[in-house]
Design a protein that fits this description.
single chain, 18 helices, five-stranded parallel sheet, 487 residues, alpha/beta
């Protein structure tokens, strides 16, 4: 513990965001940084509690008290060593993690001014890159090969750890670059994609091989020896037991058989949750109704230099935009719509408005409070409404013009289970030329895999946080290692 009185004398200080009038005109990161002196002062506030609930709350088990003390004492290199011992990619979580550790901080219970762990984490990592003391590992190979399907946070974490264990790791990614939703879901104003590229370059230098534009499919044109047809592996359908000979890699560009996975000793499936939850209301087919990721991923690709025709482009420019869904993806849509030049932005959510924090009686400390949240995108301007059910998409000549919605109440179900939705008042129409569906993703279903095939991240657990996906990837790497060493 660097300064035993700092938490009593120094208040929490966040770096904050760039001014709204400045940031809405570009896609640069909105979050600012503190100078080194202020950052070390913030690190000094860590109490080094006897029971570090921050460590308990973090899915990765980050040892915040240890690296905060090193940061306070000015030993930035040691701080990075301690941080990277549990977190393979702190530059990602330092930008986009909701900081479960901070909500579990004793100072959050004490005065609702927890240590700025997330910002400290980002500052430590940026210092490491800037000063050049991120080590490049060249582990001794053990002669075994592992394939990782999917280059999102779970797949990258699994590949990172397996590579350090000595396995020859090959990562197959269906998109043109690595990152998964880090690259194609999270806007650049929250995570600059150069940050991803910088880390991928290190992983490649350490020996991980990446294959892009390649997608795992199961051969549905072939059959088992017993006559049972092989099931498609996504979307969910009739699942049957399969063996490793059914796994093939198809080039999404050439759509031809590329290679099989039989040469690998183990396979890790980290394909995320690719199927978005749809809204089957009348008028869903109208032009102007899109899944959130259609807009978000396309905008990120545009910023990366990819071109789209006018007909392909999903843009909010000059339009009234309605975002359906009140989570982080919906918030990302709001910020992107502003930067594209939307005329107005409205966000609706079918569930009730969360309680105003900082405390949540239904989810008390040290658990993460489910309270009202205002993001940087919300600050930029947005009408927000809760308890709103979507009834119908309305259009003219095939083009969306509005959405019919109904205000509702939620009543207790006398039979238990999910509360009952009860209409309240009369339906109304919200004017909109662009609707973005941000209602989450469906948890994938998987067939029965051979014992050397492992599933991790969102593909295993359903859509969740990046930090949880990374933790799952690390746990899966340990499981793969234990399995292969038992053979």
């Amino acid at each position: 513990m660097g300064d035993s009185k700092a938490f009593l004398e120094i208040h929490r200080k966040e770096a904050g965001y760039r001014p709204i009038h400045d940031r809405i005109h570009d896609f640069s990161e909105v979050e600012q940084t503190l100078n080194a002196h202020d950052r070390r002062q913030q690190a000094s506030r860590c109490m080094d509690c006897g029971v570090p609930f921050c460590h308990w709350a973090c899915p990765l088990g980050n040892k915040a008290p240890e690296w905060n003390e090193a940061l306070y004492k000015g030993d930035w290199e040691l701080a990075y060593q301690l941080l990277s011992a549990t977190n393979p990619f702190p530059e990602f979580t330092g930008r986009i993690c909701p900081a479960l550790c901070e909500k579990a901080c004793v100072l959050n219970l004490f005065d609702h001014e927890p240590t700025t762990n997330r910002e400290n984490e980002c500052a430590i990592t940026e210092g490491a890159f800037r000063e050049g003391y991120i080590p490049i590992h060249h582990p001794e190979r053990n002669g075994k090969m592992v394939a990782v399907i999917g280059a999102g946070p779970a797949g990258l974490a699994a590949a990172h750890d397996l590579n350090l264990m000595g396995y020859k790791v090959t990562v197959f990614e269906k998109n043109e670059a690595a990152g998964g939703l880090l690259r194609y879901g999270i806007p650049n104003f929250k995570l600059n994609k150069a940050v991803i590229d910088r880390r991928i370059a290190i992983l490649e230098e350490e020996g991980i091989e990446f294959h892009y534009n390649e997608e795992l499919r199961m051969k549905n044109e072939e059959s088992h020896a017993d006559g049972k047809a092989a099931a498609n592996w996504l979307p969910p359908s009739d699942r049957r037991s399969c063996d490793s000979s059914l796994f093939t890699l198809h080039s999404s560009l050439k759509d031809t058989l590329h290679s099989s996975l039989e040469k690998f000793n183990a396979v890790v499936i980290a394909t995320g949750t690719p199927v978005a939850r749809d809204l089957k209301a009348p008028g869903r087919e109208l032009k102007g109704v899109h899944f959130a990721l259609e807009m978000l991923s396309q905008q990120n690709r545009v910023l990366a230099g990819m071109e789209f025709s006018k007909e392909q482009r999903v843009t909010a420019k000059g339009k009234n935009v309605l975002v359906i869904g009140g989570g982080d993806t919906g918030s990302d849509c709001i910020g992107t719509a502003h930067r594209q030049g939307a005329k107005s932005v409205t966000q609706i959510e079918i569930m009730p408005k969360p309680p105003i924090g900082p405390e949540d009686p239904n989810n008390p400390w040290p658990n993460f409070p489910r309270t009202f949240k205002t993001t940087s995108s919300h600050e930029e301007g947005c009408i927000r409404r809760w308890n709103i059910n979507t009834l119908e998409f309305i259009g003219k000549d095939g083009q969306l013009t509005g959405v019919k919605v109904q205000e509702i109440d939620w009543k207790p179900n006398p039979e238990g289970g999910r509360p009952l939705m009860v209409p309240k008042g009369e339906p109304e129409i919200i004017k909109a030329e662009l609707v973005l569906l941000a209602m989450g993703f469906l948890k994938p279903e998987h067939p029965e895999y051979p014992e050397n095939v492992f599933v991790c991240g969102d593909s295993k657990n359903g859509a969740s946080l990046v930090v949880r996906a990374m933790a799952s990837g690390k746990q899966t790497a340990k499981a793969v290692d234990a399995f292969l060493n038992s053979q």
